[in-house]
Amino acid sequence: MARGSAGRWQRLNGPARIGGVDLARGLAVIGMFAAHLLTTPEFWDWGDPSTWLIIVDGRSSILFATLAGVSIGLVTGGAVPLTGDRMRTARGRLAVRAGMLWVSGILLILTGVPVYVILPAYAILFLLALPFTRLTSSIVLSAAGGIGLVTAFVHPLLNELPLWYGPFGEEISAVLGWHYPFPVWLAFVLAGLGIARADVRRLRTQLWMLGAGSVLAALGYTGFEAPQDSPYLQQVLTADPHSSGLFEVFGTGGFAIAVIGACLLVCRGVVLRMLVLPLRATGAMPLTAYTAQLLIWAAVALAMIGDTGDLLAFQALEPFWPLTIGTVIGCTAWALLVGRGPLEWVLDRTAKIVVPARPRMVDRLNP
User: Fold this and answer.
1) Alpha carbon separation from 115 to 7, 134, 163, 295, 326 (Å, rounded)
2) How far apart are CA 185 and CA 125, in angstroms?
3) 223 lies in a domain?
4) Closest to 22 measured CA to CA, from 184, 260, 187
């Protein structure tokens, strides 16, 4: 963890930190809180502000997955992929983190909190993305588009596999995070990885992300109506949240790219970057914020309701604002007073212990 107040401030605000990525993560975390704890409308009408809350439904988790790809890209070299032992070490550490995320996800599922925990899917996506970490931006982005296109048509067939309807179907679905189906969602992670390879620090890349993402979102959300006599095409040609339909993949994927681009542009200015510091602090420790929310939810629900699984009763307590404000304040205070998020620190230290850095060639030749 960061040593001294100057070190903690530098870690959060120094040139090595990409503030726009932290801001986007912070928005994704708060969006997932809203999706969990608030009742979202069934449709979106630009002329009716009461329907705007639907923006968090499905889009927050896809933004989270896209940012996972950005993180993978950054730790494996950013604009220029690592090579040799350095890449093998980075991949090994990512694999260790994936394993720990999967275990963390299973433990959160066992709390009985009635949400679809994203961490098991997150862990699987980390592993699936590893073979793509040596590739260039254009190749990775092309792969993301191709995978998104193909799997949107395959996903309805995968949903009909007997696996999900057997005696342990629900349990298998939970441990695989199938609410966030990894064959489709790999496209979002690879989109983030491709963005990182395009160098998210460059103004040109940020403007491209905002423009291209907005175009994709507009095209995806104005997709044509599927034939009413084809249940299969209705599942494919849809932008409904959590449908993994073609228009959701490209529309919400584009939305995520545009949001990240906008956040990067906002954080180019010093004043705006300081104004959003609490959200950046939350985004600097997303695993801690996400986990803390679910654990507090479980503890409060058990104490006040006697049942961690009663969603309506917990929502009736109106927990969104207390949990959200408490999380933002807690993360900001921790970042400034302690440093790295506690769970992020545990994952990082464990990965470095399990997969130590390989000695440089000069050290091998001159022991």
Assistant:
1) 37, 35, 21, 12, 20
2) 8
3) yes
4) 260
Dump pLDDT digits (tens) for 81-137.
Answer: 999 999 999 999 999 999 999 999 999 999 999 999 999 999 999 999 999 999 999
Q: Quote the domain boundaries for residue 97.
A: 20-276
Question: What's the whole-model pTM score?
Answer: 0.93
**Residue 284: inside a domain:** no
Which of 239 and 190 is assigned the larger pLDDT? 190
User: How many domains does the chain fold into?
Assistant: 1
- Rounded CA gap, 120 and 129, in Å? 14
3-state secondary structure of 319: coil
Instruction: Judge contact between 105 and 122, C-beta under 8 A.
Output: yes
CB atoms within 10 A of CB 276: 20
Give the separation between CA 286 and CA 230, rounded to whole angstroms: 40
Nearest-angstrom CA–CA distance, 178 and 163: 12
Distance from C-alpha of 349 to C-alpha of 355, rounded to nearest angstrom:
10
Give the separation between CA 302 and CA 248, rounded to whole angstroms.
36
Show the tokens assigned to 115.
């949400």
CA 240/CA 154 separation, integer angstroms: 17
Residue 119 lies in a domain: yes
In a 3-state reduction of DSSP, which class is residue 106?
A: helix
* Nearest partner of 248 among 61, 33, 50, judged by Cα: 61
Please answer whether residues 323 and 37 qualify as being in contact, where contact means their C-beta atoms are separated by less than 8 angstroms: yes
Tell me if 92 is assigned to some domain: yes
Structure tokens at 318: 């109106």
Q: 154-172: string of b/e by CB count within 10 Å (b at 16+)?
A: ebbeeeeeeeeeeeeeeee
